[in-house]
């Protein structure tokens, strides 16, 4: 459960691509044990923010610390203390679940003596014990997501970053992933920063949410506080619309999707 | 083991290299078809090109046949061709998202690069085995004593590491598969033809001779020629050959390690 210790803090964090600001002067604070959800349409800058916090992408301006390490000056220490499940599927389909975890175990220098035990436990915890020796290419989407979470959590990081963790999953697989995430927080006390564009997901998982729009964090708070602030009977959708400008949303969305696909092709 | 922290650091570094190379090795063992089909190319060179060119005056020397001369060149060529497109598979891994998982780990980027480089050696060796079999069938005079074989293995490994790391650098610069294909093709031919792989340096015009002497592939071929053939001779000496390859590889690893993070930005 949340404590007072700050685990993620950004100060005027900014990322520009050419003349386009994907993340603009963003201030964010996440406390230990929290599940914090970033909500925003495609192209809002969520992935860009996560890539900066996971040290994949150098910021253009501003600073940020994760697990009390600076993301630029102490990038390697940040990496040792975080787990990351990217928007793309990051497990290797040509390896078995066990082999994927073995690679992570070695990269994170988990001592050889306990490697096997940790991998077995991780598979069991994610309900993948029977699938451990099968090629990941044969897994369902939900199984791959669970394997990725297992890989990201193997070294017991303080912070787990999840980028659209249930995108493309069927409702049953989504709920399974949700339950696993809630379990992880409860049992390991891990702090989670996740992105989503689904309100029900934010509501089911997040202690606090922040709405991102055009690279800025427009509002943060608990789902309840944000709804109450809007008035009686308001939903998160209403909160979202009020903070992103519902008018321009539809057209903005199509452009953003287009842009997103193009940039995925060009930059991954 | 005078200094345990130093020892631990080295062993950690090796573990992280192994993390990457082992996955490549497993994948190759599971599905060797790609490497095996690539082995047809050297076969064609030896069988068609070699047999015809052997009859060209000035290429064959009295002591050894042109096929003997050509075989190490073709071995080096197969190492070059399979390593130079290594970058494509890395861009592919980036597109899938697999590379991100390695890049967010605390492993030094140089360990990630070396893991890939080492793995490309497995491929080179698989191809070398095919070239050796073919060479035996063609009656090429191979040196088959253990020292020579070990030497060939070492040269193939470092050659694969060099050209795959070079390929990785290009991948980091161009970032997309389409652009890489173009550049890869553009680079392979000059590297191959501006070397001593298929004709002796002595018959080249001066400017090409200079280019060849600056081409690491020339030293790869020179080393292989000495080690692979029963009466093989080197022009530059094995120590020089290896030193040149080692230095070039080290430079490429340093550059690749710096550029590698660009792929997952
Ligand atoms: N490497 C890049 N180069 C140029 N533009 C980029 C790059 N990465 C992302 N963008 C752009 O930045 C914006 C935000 O992208 P992203 O962070 O992926 O949004 P989200 O994850 O919220 O959908 C998009 O318009 C996208 O096209
Ligand atoms: Mg995104």
What is the topology?
The complex is a heterodimer of chains A (268) and B (265).
Chain A: E1 6-17, E2 20-31, E3 35-39, H1 46-53, E4 61-66, E5 69-70, H2 75-80, E6 82-85, H3 97-107, H4 112-125, H5 141-153, E7 159-163, H6 171-188, E8 191-196, H7 199-205, E9 208-213, E10 216-221, H8 223-230, H9 236-244, H10 246-267
Parallel strand pairs in A: 3-8, 3-9, 6-7, 7-8
Antiparallel strand pairs in A: 1-2, 1-4, 4-5, 9-10
Helix pairs in contact in A: 3-4, 3-5, 5-6, 9-10
Chain B: H1 4-30, H2 33-38, H3 40-53, H4 66-84, H5 86-96, H6 98-103, H7 109-137, H8 146-174, H9 177-193, H10 206-213, H11 216-228, H12 238-259
The complex binds adenosine-5'-diphosphate (ADP) and magnesium ion.
The site of adenosine-5'-diphosphate (ADP) has 15 residues of chain A, from helix 1 and helix 10.
Quick description:
The complex is a heterodimer of chains A (268) and B (265). By secondary structure, chain A is α/β, with parallel strands linked by helices.
